Each structure stands twice: as C-alpha cells, then as structure tokens.
Amino acid sequence: MKVLICENSIDGIFSGVYRAYASRYGHNNIRLTTSDALESFELFCEYEEVPVDPECSRKVADTLRARLGQEVYYDICQAISAGETEKEQRKNMNKAEAVYKTVVLGLSMGQGFNVLNCLGNPYVARVFQLARSAGNEAHHLLGFLRFSELENGTLFSRIHPRNNVLPILAEHFVDRLPMENFIIYDENRKTAALHRKGSGYLLAAVPQADEEFMNRFSEKEQEYRQLWLEFFHSIAIEARKNPKLQRQNIPKRFWPDTVELK
Amino acid sequence: MTLMKKLNILSDAAKYDVACTSSGVERGGSGKGIGNCIAPGICHTFSADGRCISLLKILFTNECIFNCAYCLNNCNNDVKRAAFTPEEVCTLTMEFYRRNYIEGLFLSSGILISPNYTMDLIYQTLYQLRYVHGFHGYIHVKSIPGADPVLVEKVGFLADRMSINLELPTADSLRRLAPCKSRNTILKPMRQIQNSIDASKQELALLENRLYPGRGELAHWQETPRFVPAGQSTQMIIGATPESDFQIMSVAERLYQNFNLKRVFFSAFVNVTENSDLPALPGGPPLLREHRLYQADWLLRFYHFKVSELLSEDKPDFNIFLDPKCDWALRHLEFFPVEINRADYYTLLRVPGIGYKSASRIVKARKQSVLTFSDLKKIGVVLKRALYFITCSGRMMYNTKLEEDYICRNLMGDKTQIPREIRESGYRQLSLFDEGMIAPDSSASFQKIIGV
Ligand code: SF4
Q1: Distance (Å, rounded) from C-alpha B167 to C-alpha B161?
Q2: Does the beta-carbon distance from B101 to A149 stay under 8 Å?
Q3: Per-chain mean pLDDT for chain B
Q4: Strand partners, B232
Q5: Which of A16, B204, B283, B414 has its CB surrounded by the most CB atoms within 10 Å?
Q6: Looking at residue B128, what DSSP letter applies?
C-alpha cells in the first residue's frame, strides 16, 4: 500500500489527488492522509510526501467543476476547510482519504453531480459530514460576526472559528458591504480577509497583528454599541426567560466575539 | 428624549410580535448601496428568552388611539410614550446593519392620529432607507389596519415582507378584545396584499419574457420592482381566548390556502395589562401549547398533512405528551411499517423521526445503494423515534411490536417529546391542566416524563 501525505488545505489535498491519479498505482493501492494526521506508521506501507503544487491543484479543481458540477465542488472545498479536534481526527476516517475516494467514485459515475447523494458509501458520508459541520459554522458566523468601526472608518471584525470559513464569510460581506473598507481577522489561523471599497477581497497571513491599530475605535463606535445593548436587553420577554435555550441557539464559544454577550 | 430612551421604549413595546425571520427572499448586493438578502435568513443573536434576533424590531411609535385589551399600548393604559422620526429609524438601521448586528428592519407601529397618518410615516421611513441610503437589506413592515389601499400598495413596493396580525382566532374574540378592529379591516388588506403579490409576480414573468415594457418607473430602488417578494405573514395570540387547537389550526390552514400566506405565527399570551377580561395564567404563558401548534404548522407546510387528519371536533386539542406527528402515527398503525428502500417520498414524510430533508436524502441515496439502519443515522434520521415504524430490506431494527400502547410508552420515555427549552424554562405543569388539556392516566408518569 502506498500512502501519500499531503498538506491539510485545499491546494494540498488536491495536489495529493493529482499525484494519486498520475502515479497509476491503481486507486485500491493508494491511500491519502494529511500531514497533521495522528496515525502511526505501518510496516508494509510506502510513504511519500506530496508537495503543494498550485498548478496540479488548479487542474483537479477544473476537472471537479466540469465533471461533478459547481455544487459538489463547493461542498468538497467546504469539507476540506473543516477543522477537527484531535479526538474527532482519531475517531474518523482521514479527511484527505475521504475526499480522494469520493472524487474517484464521482469521476467513475455516469452522473458525477450525484456523487454526494451516495450516503451509503462511507467516504461520501464522511465528506458530507465534514461539509455539513463547516457549513453550519459558516452560516452561524454570517450572523454572529460583529464589525467595529475603527478611527479611519474601516470596519474590523475578529473571529475564532473551528473551521476555515474565512473565504465564505469574506465573499458574503463583499457582496453585502461593497462600499465599505473592512477586515475580518481569523485569530485562530492568523489570517485576514481584506476588502477595499469597490473591489474584491484578498486573504493575507497576519503573523503579527497590530493590537493597537485594532483597538482604536471611532468616536461613534461606543454610542452604537450602547444602543445595540439597550435593544438587545429590552427585546427579551421576561416571562419567557430561558438561558438554556439561548445557549443552545448561540453556543458559548461564539460569545466573546460578540458585543452583546461578551 | 434621547435616542437611547426612545429605543428602550419602542423595542420593549415591539417585543410581543413574534415574527423575526429574515427569510424568503434572495437578493444579491447591488454593487453600490449596502445590503443583500439570503433566502433562508440569518439569525444574528439570541435574546435572554432564547428567541432569534434577526431584525431591528421596533415600533415607530407606541402612541395609539385604539384600545385592544391585550396590548400594553392601548390608549387607556398609562405607559411612557415615544415616537421616532423617520431619520432616527434610518440611522439606527444603517449603523446596526453595517456592524452586522441585524439583517434588516421590522417596523410596526401603534396608531398615531389616524391609520393613514401612521402609514404615511412608515412609507417615508422606508422610502428614505431604500432611496437615500441605498439599503438593500431585509424590511418587514406591519400594515396598519384601516390604512388607505393606495398607501399599502406604495409601502409594499419598498418592503420584503408585510404582515397584518389576525390577533385572535375568531371574529367573536376580536370583537370582544379589540373593539376598534374588525375581521374586515384585517382580511381586506390581507386580500389586497395577496392580489398585489400575484400581480407583481405575473408582471415579473412577462418582463422576463420581454412581453411587457414595465411600469415606466425607471429609477426604482431595485432593477425590477417587486411587491412584497418574501410574501405576507400574520400572527395569532394563543391562550387569551377560549378557542381550541382545532379552531386555531383550521384558521391557519384557511389562511395558507385562501390567502397564500408564507407564515402564520402563534404567540403564547403574556398577560401584560392585567385586564379583568383576560385570563390570569399563573403558570406563565402557554409555551408548550404554542410549541405543539408550531409543530403542527410544520406538518401542514412541509409534510402535506391536513388539519382534519390531526384534530377533530371530538379531539380538539393536541396531545401534550407527544408531538403531533407521533400522535398521528400511533393512531394510524395500519400505515406502518414503512420500507425505507421502497416507500415513496410522501410515505416517508409521515414517519416520525424522518424530516423532510432526510426523506429527500433517502430517496436520492437509495438509488445508489440499498440503505441500512446505520446509513439512516448518517443521513440524519432520528432512529430512536423512527425505529418502531420502519424496515430496512424487510427487517425491523430491533424486535419491536407494532402496538399502540407499547410504542407510546417507549416514545414518551423519550425526553425530547417535551422540548428541553420548555422543560427547563421554569415551565409549570399546572398551567397545562388549567387549560383543560388532556390529563395523563397517572400524574406520576407525567412527572417522570418531564423529570420533576
Ligand atoms: S392597534 Fe391595538 S394592538 Fe396595535 S398598538 Fe394599538 S392598541 Fe396595541
């Protein structure tokens, strides 16, 4: 058995998929795994590290889009962006392997766009599960994320997501706030999405964030936060008070990044 | 009065309106102004009562010339009054929206001077939001009962959703508790909005086929004018008047069928006015009853159930111990077991524990391979409820009997039958019996179920 080790990212895993196809060992004789996987090395396996190759990754992406359709492609990317705890990683099939074998199945089917419906297949079921958990968090954050206005008028947001949902969020807010300058900063991954008004966005690594800059708020900022808090408290119905339901609907881990619950 | 004080009074006065969804319309950003909408809606936070906050829900004013008995703002009540200006509402909406606090605005109002005067203020506010601020986010607006149809029409082209509250399930109750309103001043504008929505949809279809030159209003805030694209909704207060669940659900069903409503909301009555015509409800608002009504409402909208299948004159109220779908299934065991690998979509929908999403996943997945119980779990089926009612390739999951008492006992052991949020919200069992709901055989088993 040949084991390809790839980086845990869209480009990394797609590079691995490309290498698996190119090697012509036969899909039954190859397994993919991510470099951060917690597996122990097995005796009769041959390990190979696959470097990230943007060109190979693009070819895989193009093929998936063309043969499996935009929706499946999107779900696969979302599955890859899912972050897992160590426990989850130990318990479940490796993400890269699930994606690889799902792609193999999809490309072998007459109607590849149906591939994610094959939930009886364990690889597909895993991709589906990962995509769903990342998708849920992204949807949550579309609502729970908060912007603050900095001194220079830029809107700034700090998030701590489990999954790598920054690109999904950035796209949403570029469409929503085209005429605002904004920054969304994923502190867990030290990455920021930067948007200049009237244009697209770019992702940048931020190894050293400038705390001072991020805390210099505009004059009006405090005032609107106060108004929001006022609204937030007066809209609740005392007779229906239910902190447990509240916590169930907006899990505690999102609280520190909001204005009203921190 | 400061803006802070106004916001305090006018959001406090708006909180008994339950609708807060921002769903039903998909609208990309314009590339210029600000805002977009996504069809499923977005919740931005949850208040201390656990309800979703999606929209800035406020009254324009809580001044009111009417005297509805259940309402804090009624003209006989001594409460602090306030009114926004259109500019203030715009500023709050825009600044909250930029900071991603909200999905948009839910604007309702008490009646200041006259219905037309109030409706016009609402119109001005919406006009400024759409045209001066370029706001493309979600707007839900309450139509004022008795306002001129021309104004209703104008507002409808600026809003995404409109609603007129039915308030109470029957005309009798309305007459008693809201003497200034009548079925007529509620149903007439509801019909008008329905007709305008239909007309707007047809126009849109013609526009798309280039058969119709459009209204000629070139500078509309969105490229093609659309009237209330997210549809209309309404709300009924539950437990202030003696109607049965059967009456309430039948009204809801008629509203869906005859008025094409998107949503009917139920609001568990909270006695805020201490009016002697109203029930005191020492056990708090009837939350479990409200919950059952919402469950049944889902069955109507997504599961192809009819009210007559769930309730009748002889059985006018929902079972408080079982959700309406389980309750139905237990009374129709002849329908089961259902074979997962063969049954059609509509049959699957009737199985407790299978949601409409799971049902459609099952139909797709089984084309590729025969499904087993462990596949069902991955698909999202709630097996602990479904297992009594299904087979996979001819086999039950366990050796269970298809027998009413047996299944009922097992289902009631499942705590989720009375949802956690209600079990744990200081919900008192007494209030249930007070309302004349069916008492269980022994109160001991009841106490076990809700864990008290
Ligand atoms: S019309 Fe009736 S329900 Fe509406 S604000 Fe006035 S008193 Fe309250």
Answers
A1: 18
A2: no
A3: 86
A4: B162
A5: A16
A6: I
Domain spans in chain B, listed from the N-terminal domain onward: 3-308, 325-417
- The C-alpha of A77 sits at a distance from chain B's nearest C-alpha, in angstroms, of 20
Q: Is the pLDDT of residue A30 over 50?
A: yes
Out of A84, A116, A135, pick the residue that ends a domain. Answer: A135
Contact at CB, A237 and B368, closer than 8 angstroms: no
Decide which of A86, A102, A135 is a domain's last residue.
A135
Ligand 1 cavity residues, CB under 6 Å? B 64, 66, 68, 71, 73-74, 110-111
How many angstroms separate the CA of residue B191 from the nearest CA in chain A? 31
Q: How far is the CA of B434 from the centre of ligand 1 (A)?
A: 28
- Considering only CB atoms, which chain B residues are within 8 Å of A149? 98-99
- Contact list in B for residue A248 (CB cut-off 8 A) is 50, 420-421
Averaged over A78-86, what is the pLDDT? 89
Q: Say how many residues make up chain A.
A: 262
- How many Å lie between the alpha carbon of B309 and the closest alpha carbon of chain A? 31
Which chain A residues are within 8 Å of B17, Cβ to Cβ? none
Residues A127 and A163 in one domain: no
- For residue range B58-98, list pLDDT tens digits in order: 999 999 999 898 888 888 888 999 999 999 999 999 999 99
What pLDDT is stored for residue B441 in this prediction?
Answer: 35
**pLDDT for res B218:** 42
Cα angle: B192, vertex B194, B195; to 5 degrees: 65
Is residue A104 located within the same domain as residue A14? yes
In this structure, the strands spanning A2-6 and A191-195 are unpaired
Cβ within 8 Å, pair B100-A147 = yes
Report in angstroms the alpha-carbon separations of B164 from B178, B265, B423.
Answer: 14, 11, 32
Where does the pLDDT of residue A149 fall: very low under 50, low under 70, confident under 90, or very high at 90 and above?
Answer: very high
For A1-15, what is the mean pLDDT? 93
State yes or no: ipTM above 0.90.
Answer: no
Nearest CA to ligand 1 atom 7: B74
Domain that holds residue A195: 145-261
pLDDT in tens, B220-253: 677 777 899 999 999 999 998 989 999 999 999 9
Count of domains observed in chain A: 2
Residue B243 alpha carbon to ligand 1 centre in Å: 21
State whether CATH 3.20.20.70 applies to domain B3-308. Answer: yes
DSSP state string for A92-142: S--HHHHHHHHHHHHHHSSSGGGGGG-TTSHHHHHHHHHHHHHHHHHHHHH
How do A46-49 and A148-149 pair as beta strands? unpaired
Calculate the CA B168 to chain-centre distance: 15
Q: Which pLDDT value is given to residue B209?
A: 63
